[in-house]
């Protein structure tokens, strides 16, 4: 499967998800419109505008030679870190639902969404510059670990554990593909898991979410309400769904039916057919993106495309696992489908960057695979 066919298939899958997202935002807009000074039309028009802006950016970025970004990689990374710090500065930060993920600079947006792309860019730049030393401790593990650790911690302490988890997995995937020593990655994953457990057990709200995840029915009137109603939505939808617009749980019973839990609304209205269709589209996108990445001859393009695929795949996988109660509730939107401007625009922009990589990097006949290099980097 050549890279041109892959990028075409990726765009078809992305457009299909985007259209489905707009339809479902329109369907769930009645629930969201219960908020003061809002209407269903407001939500669909805003989301359509965000989608249009995202597509324009993606087309522009796809025509742009991504190699030029290397000249500004450190500047872009620094700006993204500063924007994340502003989430803690009174006068700039905007707090919603007890979280301060947003800032207001005349326009309200989430710096963490921009930071995901900036992080992928700086790590791809670092490993390309030091590609001969990717198996060493300092230049192959410690320094790039600090590069993605700084924004990761800033996002984590915004109380955005979902984005932090997706970003952490993206960072580890990039380091794996770049050739970092696998045993160092395993150790860091274990340490990270221990830190996460410690942070969870020290916070009553997070522990309540764990209890609610283990027994959603017992917490169906409290912390487990979203996941419990989500399961009822899937059950009511059955195989083929109750029909577009015919869902009942979105009318105030399912909180955030137009954002974090829109997958449950799809399950109710489109049934198993619709939800499996979404899983298939994300699988096709991820497969095509990885084929493009692994066929790229140049290291920077290969790593950049891999990271961009990860920042789409991991949030999608985590969102669907949360909504289906496989994981505890973390509060993460479903890419291309959930309502939200910053996430939608930045995720579509990632599609544009993958397109730029495919257009401006020569492909090799046999796909690159780092496993042999990684196995050779055994512990001394």
UniProtKB/TrEMBL annotation:
Q: Per UniProt, what is one Pfam family of this protein?
A: FTSW_RODA_SPOVE
Its membrane topology = Multi-pass membrane protein
Chief place where the protein resides: membrane
Q: Which residues form the signal peptide?
A: none
Which keywords does this chain's UniProt record carry?
Cell shape, Glycosyltransferase, Membrane, Peptidoglycan synthesis, Transferase, Transmembrane, Transmembrane helix
Q: Which reaction does it catalyse?
A: [GlcNAc-(1->4)-Mur2Ac(oyl-L-Ala-gamma-D-Glu-L-Lys-D-Ala-D-Ala)](n)-di-trans,octa-cis-undecaprenyl diphosphate + beta-D-GlcNAc-(1->4)-Mur2Ac(oyl-L-Ala-gamma-D-Glu-L-Lys-D-Ala-D-Ala)-di-trans,octa-cis-undecaprenyl diphosphate = [GlcNAc-(1->4)-Mur2Ac(oyl-L-Ala-gamma-D-Glu-L-Lys-D-Ala-D-Ala)](n+1)-di-trans,octa-cis-undecaprenyl diphosphate + di-trans,octa-cis-undecaprenyl diphosphate + H(+)
Q: Which terms in the GO cellular component ontology are assigned?
A: cell division site; plasma membrane
Any one Gene Ontology BP term = cell division
Record-annotated membrane-spanning stretches: 43-62, 74-92, 137-157, 164-197, 270-294, 303-324, 336-357
InterPro entries associated with the record: FtsW/RodA (IPR001182)
This protein's name: Probable peptidoglycan glycosyltransferase FtsW
* Family assignment from sequence similarity: Belongs to the SEDS family. FtsW subfamily.
Tell me where in or outside the cell this protein is found: Membrane
What EC number(s) does its UniProt record assign?
2.4.99.28
Keyword flag Glycosyltransferase: yes
Q: Which GO terms describe its molecular function?
A: lipid-linked peptidoglycan transporter activity; peptidoglycan glycosyltransferase activity
């Amino acid at each position: 499967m050549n890279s041109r066919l892959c990028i075409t298939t990726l765009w078809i899958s992305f457009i299909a998800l985007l259209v489905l997202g707009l339809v479902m935002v329109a369907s769930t807009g009645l629930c969201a419109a219960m908020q003061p000074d809002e209407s269903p039309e407001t939500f669909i028009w805003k989301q359509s505008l965000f989608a249009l802006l995202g597509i324009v950016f993606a087309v522009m970025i796809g025509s742009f030679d991504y190699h030029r970004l290397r000249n500004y990689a450190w500047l872009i990374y620094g700006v993204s870190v500063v924007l994340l710090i502003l989430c803690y500065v009174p006068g700039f930060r905007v707090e919603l639902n007890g979280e301060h993920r947003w800032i207001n600079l005349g326009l309200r947006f989430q710096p963490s969404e921009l930071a995901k792309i900036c992080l992928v860019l700086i790590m791809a730049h670092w490993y390309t510059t030091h590609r001969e030393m990717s198996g060493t401790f300092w230049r192959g593990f410690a320094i790039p670990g600090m590069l993605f650790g700084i924004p990761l911690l800033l996002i984590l302490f915004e109380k955005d554990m979902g984005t932090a988890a997706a970003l952490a997995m993206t960072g580890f995937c990039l380091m794996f593909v770049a050739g970092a020593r696998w045993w160092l990655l395993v150790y860091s994953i274990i340490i990270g898991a221990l830190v996460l457990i410690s942070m969870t057990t020290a916070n009553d709200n997070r522990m309540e979410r764990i209890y609610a995840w283990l027994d959603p029915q017992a917490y169906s009137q409290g912390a487990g309400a979203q996941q419990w109603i989500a399961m009822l939505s899937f059950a009511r939808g059955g195989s083929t769904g109750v029909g577009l617009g015919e869902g009942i749980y979105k009318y105030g019973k399912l909180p955030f039916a137009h954002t974090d839990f829109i997958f449950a609304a799809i399950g109710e209205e489109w049934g198993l057919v619709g939800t499996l269709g979404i899983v298939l589209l994300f699988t096709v996108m991820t497969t095509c993106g990885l084929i493009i990445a692994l066929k790229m001859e140049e290291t920077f393009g290969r790593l950049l495309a891999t990271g961009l695929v990860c920042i789409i795949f991991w949030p999608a996988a985590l969102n669907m696992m949360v909504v289906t109660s496989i994981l505890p509730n973390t509060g993460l939107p479903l890419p291309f489908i959930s309502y939200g401007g910053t996430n939608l625009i930045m995720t579509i922009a990632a599609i544009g960057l993958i397109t730029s990589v495919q257009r401006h990097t020569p492909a090799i006949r046999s796909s690159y695979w780092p496993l042999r290099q990684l196995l050779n980097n055994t512990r001394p």
